[in-house]
Amino acid sequence: MRRRATDFRRPVRRRVPDALWWALCCAVILLFVYILSKGNQIESRPVLSKRTYKHDRIMEGLNITDEMLSYNSVTRQINDQISLAKSFVVIAKESNNLQFAWELSAQIRNSQILLSNAATRRAPLTTRESESAIHDMALLLYQAQQLHYDSATMIMKFKAKIQTLEEQMNSVNEKSSKYGQIAAEEVPKSLYCLGVWLTTEWFKNVNLQKKLKDKRQVEIKLKDNNLYHFCVFSDNILATSVVVNSTAMNSKNPNMVVFHLVTDEINYAAMKAWFAMNDFRGVTVEVQKFEDFSWLNASYVPVLKQLQDSEIQSYYFSGSDDGRTPIKFRNPKYLSMLNHLRFYIPEVFPALKKVVFLDDDVVVQKDLSDLFSIDLNGNVNGAVETCMETFHRYHKYLNYSHPLIHAHFDPDACGWAFGMNVFDLVEWRKKNVTGIYHYWQEKNVDRTLWKLGTLPPGLLTFYGLTEPLDPSWHVLGFGYTNVDPQLIERGAVLHFNGNSKPWLKIGIEKYKPLWEKYVEYSHPLLQQCNFH
């Protein structure tokens, strides 16, 4: 048989090995990919199991709260024992059984450590590990019951303790009220010193008296209704000086400001001397004493008539009330004519048509001339209302169990404040407001309509005759509470109502600078009387 040529056979033999080679390569690659995928699955399995295990442990720890709430839980039983043991510790100490109280406290600590360890390892307590602590605590609780530390005994002792504490608290509150009232009513030595020096200066210095008499033009200003008239009724020289000085310092036209000051016989010479020797940017100042008002007598003024009654005198001045009425309501200052003179302003200033009344415990920090152009809409009194809180409504000040009060006044009517008031004296005279005041004063001779003070009769007298003013005109509370800084910034008149007056040691320190910046401490008399 004939053979094929060599160069013809060689290509045919090479085709078979090439196909096998490519097949083997593909198989190897597929095997490698398969092995890699298997390896990844094997490596990932432990990680997933670890994560799952940790998650289960966290969930188990979070279930400790459920364990404590469960009725058959060991953790809950130990917590209940601890709560009961704490109560017994208090009772044991009250019974002076300090050894037993110490034993209970020690066992409480042991139980708390047990609970803490369980919470740290995030696993519930087992009966075996808590059996000893539960048993020891149970013995102590049983012992407490044997010592009559049972619930009934505890309740009785707690009631007795509460009653004792209430009695002590009432006693402390009463003493605090008395001492606070005494501190508020005291006349500081420096003020007393100033009054004495000024009185002496007035009587020995003839030039000072002439200086006051020579001001003929003052008489014209006192009756000029085109000027801004302010009135202050006070026996406190320095406080009145601050009112006048702060008004003058913040006034756009101080030469148009007229102050009408009324004081008593004791402070009359000192008050005249002070305002004669000091200038307040051209402000006109008139000083009078109420003893010179011939119309102010017992036949016309109910308060003066009541002062002649022996029962009233005993109530205010002898302290024969046996403590039934708080001391602040029995303060004789409430019968002072300087307090009640605000209800006689038309009689005090018969030539005037409009007046701004200021208390002596205020500071003026804005120009007040716009007050005189406010339309009161036929009302007599322009005042800032104080009923943002429920305790400043009428029912807080008046006795609504009395038929007269109940029949004539709405208990939820809005209260307002004395201290900065605009009075239309024309409307006052037309509506006979002073006569309304007399009517209610006479009805309250037995103090059944209201206790004391000038605000309750003021609320009755000006009921339906008061025009609300913008709150920024009169900001209160500087003598007893915290005041919003924004209100202080916007306020025209800042009122130190309350016991903590700025000239007293008990004054609120953070508010004193508002008042003190209008006191000239460099004045020789103030330095001599140790004002600082």
From TrEMBL:
<dbReference type="InterPro" id="IPR002495">
    <property type="entry name" value="Glyco_trans_8"/>
</dbReference>
<protein>
    <recommendedName>
        <fullName>Hexosyltransferase</fullName>
        <ecNumber>2.4.1.-</ecNumber>
    </recommendedName>
</protein>
<feature type="transmembrane region" description="Helical">
    <location>
        <begin position="20"/>
        <end position="37"/>
    </location>
</feature>
<dbReference type="Pfam" id="PF25557">
    <property type="entry name" value="GAUT_1"/>
</dbReference>
<keyword id="KW-1133">Transmembrane helix</keyword>
<keyword id="KW-0325">Glycoprotein</keyword>
<dbReference type="GO" id="GO:0047262">
    <property type="term" value="F:polygalacturonate 4-alpha-galacturonosyltransferase activity"/>
</dbReference>
<keyword id="KW-0812">Transmembrane</keyword>
<dbReference type="GO" id="GO:0071555">
    <property type="term" value="P:cell wall organization"/>
</dbReference>
<comment type="similarity">
    <text>Belongs to the glycosyltransferase 8 family.</text>
</comment>
<keyword id="KW-0961">Cell wall biogenesis/degradation</keyword>
<dbReference type="GO" id="GO:0000139">
    <property type="term" value="C:Golgi membrane"/>
</dbReference>
<dbReference type="InterPro" id="IPR029993">
    <property type="entry name" value="GAUT"/>
</dbReference>
<dbReference type="Pfam" id="PF01501">
    <property type="entry name" value="Glyco_transf_8"/>
</dbReference>
<keyword id="KW-0472">Membrane</keyword>
<keyword id="KW-0735">Signal-anchor</keyword>
<keyword id="KW-0333">Golgi apparatus</keyword>
<keyword id="KW-0328">Glycosyltransferase</keyword>
<comment type="pathway">
    <text>Glycan metabolism; pectin biosynthesis.</text>
</comment>
<dbReference type="InterPro" id="IPR029044">
    <property type="entry name" value="Nucleotide-diphossugar_trans"/>
</dbReference>
<keyword id="KW-0808">Transferase</keyword>
